[in-house]
Amino acid sequence: MTIAARGKVVTINYTIKDSQGQLLDTNDGQGPVSYVQGANKLLAGLERALEGKKAGDAITVKLSPDEAFGQRVDNLIRTLRLQDLEVGDEPLEPGEIITLGEEDGAWIVVAIEEDTVYLDGNDPWAGKTLHISAQVLGVRDATPAEAKSGEVME
């Protein structure tokens, strides 16, 4: 039986919840997810938990913010005047993701009050402890192209 090890393609189903049990993400109903073990495409703590597992195994791992998406950073909260943003023809909505320029990356619109826009540049999961459960569905050898690129080609 093949086990998850560097250079293997591992196929999983997963569920991610926060410390309050709120569902953050799952692939349930979307089909399984495959990745190349050791290619650093998953959170490191999740990949470590899956190392050595085989089809049929299940894991549960708790990742602190520092092991996941980091702590929230206060200087990634910005307040801008609406007129200073190039937003196009559509009005901005809370929850929308916008870019402020190539170097500033993506920002989430938190709120809009009159002509003021409140933005957050933190990852939405920053500061959260993640509780991840995963079921290993299959493990196979990566093709040479998959091993080289770290991307599953199927």
Automatic annotation (TrEMBL):
Catalytic activity: [protein]-peptidylproline (omega=180) = [protein]-peptidylproline (omega=0)
Signal sequence, start to end: none
PROSITE patterns, sorted: FKBP_PPIASE
GO molecular function, one term: isomerase activity
Pfam family, one: FKBP_C
Keyword Lyase: no
UniProt protein name: Peptidyl-prolyl cis-trans isomerase
